[in-house]
Amino acid sequence: MSKYENLSKEQLLQLVEKQEKELKSKKYGLVWDAEREPEQVVLDCENNMPILKRIKGKEIRTDDEEDNILIEGDNYHALSVLNYTHKGKIDVIYIDPPYNLGKKDFIYNDRFVDKEDGYRHSKWLSFMSKRFNIIRDLLKNDGVIFISIGEDELANLRLLADKVFGEANYISCVTRIAKTASNLGTHFAPSTDYILVYAKSIENVPYFKDDVDKSLYRKVEKTGSRKGENYRDDIAFYQSSQKDLRPNQKYFIECPDNSKVLPPCAIQDETMREGDGRWRWAKETYELNKHFLVFKKTKTSPLVDANGKKSIWNIYTKSYLSDRMKDGTKPRNFLDKFINRKGADFLKTIDIKFDFPKPVELIKYLIKITDKNNEILVLDFFAGSGTTGQAVLELNREDYGKRKFIICTNNENNICDDVTFPRMERVINGYLSKKKKKFNALGGNLQYFKTSFVKKTKNKDQLKINLTRKCTEMLCVKENIFNEQKVEEDYKIYVSNKNDKYLCVYFNFIDDSFEQFIEELKTIKQPKVIYMFSLDNNIEKD
């Protein structure tokens, strides 16, 4: 018997109206069973106060610059804390999340998710969406995120990222050659993965710039004001691949023998018609820059003269290396220089074992093409072996930059203890391998934190006291000031690595301490950041 047979006419109408309303409200995109089995870490963060606990004895310091941060713990927990300390402060995010291959590469609630799990994709989407909902707010308005992913979840990730960041903020999907040889797969041997690129607000993000290939600029100018400069003149002025109508890009150009030429066209005039070729520049640009044109005689010219006959000339544009270096080149959405083997080979040189690390050259490349300054903050909350941290340090060494990184990883299979932290320690301080191969020190500083909780209690005042005591280290993370200058029962004072800035924290839990704190502040002449806590929202004495 149908479950609808005993419904009245009014009940059936109500049911139809409800279904029609639901259909109208639904939009194209992702729908998944996100709450079938919620993550325990999400519940823990809802029922307790997530904090970070500084691990003393694991600091690394080689200079007076600001500190980088390594967080050990679940990245949802870490991101929840960073949402308080670094909201709107991150310039670039790179992440390499689980590809969810169904081969024990993705853990949900302490259990591996395999291909037989009917909720495999749903669990992965729930896992990722919880984190994505936080990280968008961490980015600056001109911030960008790069997300490495395999084809198993590429489509789902694209829809999820469209939902969180907005489809209008999609920048590209970059294909990367991950390996050059493989006997795996069925119909095809898997060789690529992908990098989805999004902006927080694309109108605030300048165009990306790639390095210029200097080897293409082999010729040397012999005369004129630019004598001695390298240039190239092998880029055709006629755009053979472009056939759309551009009325101001079809016009006669006079050649050295006084003949006039046009791009290939049916009628030899300056009226653009369907199928006509076009020049690279509009006529106004040509008039200003025609001294950059180079005319070469050839038997295979695609150009036509005023009579429609094949011209003996082809036209190219001259470009100087110095000019190109200023403008850069547009990066391709296909990468073939950064295969995974490079990452694995490097880790062997510093005696670290880890499967499938991303090559440090890839992360350096992605950071560089954003064309941001060399003092940005980079976040990676799927840090794995710590490739992103090393990439930032290497870039700083190359251009004397002051970039900083925050990297987060859990400690499953002791990855943080045996891989991530040892790698950071060895690349910062330098390392001589068991085979006597030397890796020169990159320098830099590192602070080590673990995720923790302040348990909620029924005594609200006690909860505030507990939270205040524990959250002081989060303020150190927020201000990037970690060196204890003075520690009293009711206040703490920290100083930056360069001794040029102070962090002063007052708790107001003990009587007769406020005046002492004020007197201490008077002795500090450098800029200072002051935080004051009070149970009754009043820091003045009665």
Short synopsis of the structure:
This protein has 542 residues and is α/β, with parallel strands linked by helices. It is built from 13 helices and 26 strands. The strands form 6 sheets. Strands 1, 2, 3, 4, 7, 8, 9, 17, 18, 19 and 22 form an 11-stranded mixed beta sheet that branches.
Structure overview:
The protein is an alpha/beta fold and 542 residues long. The protein contains 13 helices and 26 strands. The chain has helices at residues 9-25, 40-47, 75-85, 120-138, 151-165, 283-289, 321-327, 340-349, 360-369, 387-399, 415-429, 460-479, 514-522; strands at residues 48-54, 60-61, 68-72, 90-95, 107-108, 111-112, 139-149, 170-177, 192-199, 219-220, 230-236, 253-254, 260-262, 293-297, 304-305, 313-320, 334-335, 377-380, 404-409, 431-432, 438-439, 445-455, 483-487, 491-495, 502-506, 528-532. The strands form six sheets. Strands 1, 2, 3, 4, 7, 8, 9, 17, 18, 19 and 22 form an eleven-stranded mixed β-sheet that branches. β25, α13 (514-522) and β26 form a beta-alpha-beta unit. α9 crosses α10 (387-399). The longest helix is centred in the last third of the chain and has 20 residues, at 460-479. The chain is globular. The mean pLDDT is 91.
